[in-house]
Design a protein that fits this description.
Elements: H1 13-21, E1 23-27, H2 31-42, E2 46-50, H3 74-85, E3 90-94, H4 103-106, E4 112-115, H5 123-133, E5 138-144, E6 147-153, H6 170-184, H7 190-201, H8 212-231, E7 242-244
Parallel strand pairs: 1-2, 1-4, 2-3, 4-5
Antiparallel strand pairs: 5-6, 6-7
Helix pairs in contact: 2-3, 2-8, 6-7
Length: 251
């Protein structure tokens, strides 16, 4: 039986071939590690992974790694996992942080990019700007614990730095953007408001709180969006977004 035979009805043979040929760049192998496997299993067989960090024990609560990966490069560990699933896939990896010196080469012949870079510098903004110039749509997945958030930057469209021109604290600003939007449309998420308040009150340089729940949900959203983009289906572009959570507010 063919590897993708169970994709039938949902994915036509022509669409499956489009998926196979599509070239994806994963900028960041944290939440990108979950997205990568979901994409590969649907049939995306041309994947480039770029990340210069190593697997830490605190990554195992949500990222697609195992205990034996601790201390090893994320990009390489992820690539090896993907190739165990599909040895014939064209999976390339770069154990390096994305910067202005290597970005141009990484974006060569890319159809869709996933910007899963940490906001420790302005590189995520630079990444998007260069993709826009090259007419490459960029997916931005976010892990809000019990909620999964995805926004897509359209080439030539609005850029994320319109929320804030500074990369400092950008992730929490994005969470506030989502919370305000939901409240404006009378769909408040008090659990999200509470998370933001507690996050802001934490002292020190603590990393954002994240759960496996959102990582897996947003991975599905990303792969669904990739499929819709390449098959010509309508998708929401920033400032519109996708946000999913079944967490209920108190009555």
């Amino acid at each position: 039986m063919d590897r993708y035979s169970r994709n039938r009805i949902y994915v036509s043979e022509e669409e499956q071939e489009k998926v196979r040929r599509t070239r994806i760049l994963l900028g960041g192998a944290g939440i990108g590690s979950v997205i990568a496997e979901c994409a590969l299993r649907l049939g995306f067989e041309n994947i480039v992974i770029a990340d210069g960090s190593k697997v830490e024990v605190s990554d195992l609560n949500r990222q697609n790694f195992v205990k034996s990966d601790i201390g090893k490069p994320k990009a390489e560990s992820l690539a090896k996992r993907l190739l165990k699933i599909n040895p014939k896939a064209n999976v390339r990896w770069h154990n390096m942080m994305i910067d202005t010196d290597n970005l141009e080469e990484l974006l060569d012949r890319v159809d869709i990019a996933v910007n899963a870079l940490d906001f420790r510098s302005d590189i995520p903004f630079v990444f998007d700007a260069r993709c826009s110039e090259k007419r490459i749509p960029v997916l931005h997945p976010y892990n809000f614990g019990w909620g999964a958030f995805l926004t897509i930057v359209k080439p030539g469209g609005y850029q994320l730095n319109e929320i804030s021109p500074s990369y400092k604290g950008f992730e929490i600003k994005m969470a506030e953007f989502v919370a305000r939007y939901c409240t404006f449309w009378n769909m408040p998420n008090r659990w999200l408001d509470g998370m933001i308040e507690q996050w802001r009150s934490e002292r020190g340089e603590l990393l954002p709180p994240r759960l496996a729940v959102a990582s897996w949900v947003v991975a599905g959203h990303c792969v669904n969006a990739m499929f819709d983009i390449i098959t010509g289906e309508e998708v929401k572009y920033f400032p519109k977004f996708y946000f999913s959570s079944i967490r209920c507010d108190p009555a």
